[in-house]
Amino acid sequence: MIAAVVHFAAGDPITSWYTALTWLLMVAAVAYLMVSTWRFYSFKDIDFGSRHPFRLILFLAALFASIYYFSRPVLFGVALLYMLSGVFWRLQWVFRRRSGPPPPTYKEASLTS
């Protein structure tokens, strides 16, 4: 994400304090996510040996073309979407976990088996 920030700004120095504060908060959030135990999608289950739908190939071609022609905003957007997807899935897991009944205590679990 840090490289995306530098690439997005084209290496120009930050001139306003609120922009610097925004980048500082974003870098702190990314640093926290890097050392946390939150799960992010790893793309390991994608099988490139199998057949893919034509729409997926068009989507990937459009993505690569947009990265080639508009690398600054597109790479920053991809990095931001990836970061927000991890936060979204973590929040979804937290809210889904709380809606169910609590797990049985150790005594209750040992009495049933």
Q: Which consecutive residue ranges, at least 5 long each, have pLDDT under 50?
A: none
Q: Which overall shape is indicated by the principal axes computed on the Cα atoms?
A: flat
Mean pLDDT: 81
Q: For the report, how would you describe the main beta sheet?
A: none
Backbone structural class: mainly alpha
Element-by-element helix/strand order: HHHHH
Q: Please provide the count of β strands.
A: 0
Radius of gyration: 21 Å
How much of the polypeptide forms β-strand, as a percent range?
Answer: under 5%
Percent helix, as a range, is 55-70%
| CA-CA gap between termini | 49 Å
Number of helices: 5
Number of individual domains: 1
List the keywords.
flat; 5 helices; 69% helix; 113 residues; mainly alpha
List the helices and strands and how they pair.
Layout: H1 2-8, H2 17-35, H3 54-69, H4 71-99, H5 106-112
Helix pairs in contact: 1-4, 3-4
